[in-house]
Every structure is written in structure tokens, then in C-alpha cells.
Design brief:
The protein is α+β, with helices and mostly antiparallel strands. It contains 5 helices and 9 strands.
């Protein structure tokens, strides 16, 4: 538990996502044994980029692992610019907290000392494309979870971003046109989604839900007309692995 907690504490010192999905109707026991929780994550995680969502640790050491407890399974990783913890409870509630990767570029071995990413200071920027891709992966994963009949066809979802105040919205991809206007957040946190959804709605509309939530986040950066078509194009590139 100590590595799980220390990773969570580290994540919360900078910008982070928090995702919660839970059954609207009470479930007495979602799993017969909590070991099934880790296999449920492994079987439903999204693998469209070089990093899965949520990350399923394959090693148990000081940097990553999965702990099985009486009423929950805890997963954690603190490696390079990837900082994540997740908990799947016996009740069917899933909670995932992961750090904004741009806040941890400077301590990542993925980039050389002269690489542009290694010069990004923590708590200063938010990558527009990263928001689009992460939100899409999140909704894809949640739609898969919600399709399980044990959720009784209805779940509550909350997705938020924290420690955003003063950040500049940016685009890291050098092939893209940069954001020339200064677009900074004046709010410390954003709740992008907080609502009940049926499994059918998530199954058919998860891309639209992810798009609309991304648009809502961008508007907090003083951008009243975000580029919806660009967001949709990036979603399709993700789905077809063209990124």
C-alpha cells in the first residue's frame, strides 16, 4: 500500500485527471473474488497508443504493481512521465487518478536533455491533443465497463482535471499549427463530466461524449469556439492508429 499512496501523493502535487465510474443501482458483490478485478481491467483496457489506458502493471516492485486487498484491487505506476493509480472496488466502483504527462517530462528518460519536451516546466501547460486523446480513451474504456450486465445498464461517471490555474493551452505536435493566442486557465479544476449514463448511450455515443467534454475543457481556456472538427479528426486518428 505504501507505494500506491506515495504515487498518489506525488501525482496530486501537479496536474492530474480523476475518473470515477460507479453503479447507479447498488451492487452487493461485483466480484466473487477481488482477483477478478485485475483481470477485468486487463481484459478491458484500451491499447491504441504506445501506452495503455488504464495502465495494467505487469511487474510488482517499488515503481509499479497491483495489490489485492479484501474489498479492492489497487494498481500503481511511477515510471518516467507516467504516474497513475487506480482502484477497483468490490462494489463495482472504479477510480483512476493519473498525472498530466507534460508535468513530468523533465524527469523522463524518454527525452534527451536537449529535447523540446525535456524543457517543459511542470504546471505551466496543457496539451490540447493530449486532452482529446485521453478523454477519448477514457470514454472508450468506461463504455466497455458499463456494458457488463452487473452494472444493470446504468452508471454514474465523473471526470475532472485538477491543478490547472495559470496553465497555457498548447499543442506539442510540431506538425500542427501552434496556438498563437494566449489561452490560459483561470480555474484550478474542471469537472468535465458528472452525470448518469445508460450502457446503450455509452456504447453508441462515447465518441460524442468525449468530444463534447473536450470542448468544455478547452472553453475554460478562454476559447469560446474550440476546433470541433480537429478534435473529431484526432479521435479518428486514434481509433485507426494513425498518430
Amino acid at each position: 500500500m505504501s507505494n500506491f499512496k506515495s504515487t498518489l501523493d506525488k501525482i496530486k502535487k501537479r496536474g492530474y485527471w480523476k475518473i470515477v465510474i460507479e453503479p447507479v443501482y447498488p451492487i452487493k458483490k461485483f466480484f466473487d473474488h477481488i482477483i477478478e478485478a485485475k483481470e477485468f481491467i486487463n481484459g478491458n483496457r484500451i491499447q491504441l497508443r504506445s501506452w495503455d489506458y488504464p495502465h495494467y502493471p505487469t511487474r510488482n516492485d517499488e515503481k509499479s504493481g497491483i495489490n489485492l486487498l479484501t474489498n479492492r484491487a489497487n494498481g500503481y505506476i511511477d515510471w518516467n512521465h507516467f504516474k497513475e493509480v487506480w482502484t477497483y472496488f468490490q462494489s463495482g466502483q472504479f477510480v483512476h487518478v493519473f498525472g498530466l504527462r507534460e508535468d513530468w517530462f523533465q524527469e523522463s528518460d524518454w527525452f534527451g536533455s536537449e529535447d523540446r519536451y525535456s524543457k517543459v516546466d511542470p504546471n505551466t501547460v496543457l496539451d490540447l491533443i493530449g486532452v482529446t486523446l485521453s478523454m477519448t480513451e477514457i470514454l472508450l474504456f468506461l463504455s466497455k465497463l458499463a456494458s457488463d450486465p452487473r452494472y444493470k445498464e446504468k452508471v454514474h461517471i465523473q471526470i475532472s482535471l485538477s491543478n490547472l490555474e495559470g496553465r497555457q493551452l498548447t499543442v506539442f505536435d510540431p506538425r500542427r499549427v501552434p496556438i498563437f493566442s494566449e489561452r490560459k486557465s483561470t480555474t484550478p479544476s474542471i469537472v468535465a463530466i458528472d452525470d448518469d449514463f445508460s450502457s446503450d448511450t455509452l456504447s453508441h455515443d462515447h465518441l460524442a461524449i468525449a468530444r463534447d467534454a473536450t470542448v468544455d475543457i478547452i472553453k475554460y481556456f478562454d476559447w469560446p469556439d474550440p476546433p470541433v472538427k480537429v478534435i473529431e479528426d484526432d479521435q479518428q486518428k486514434l481509433l485507426t492508429r494513425r498518430l
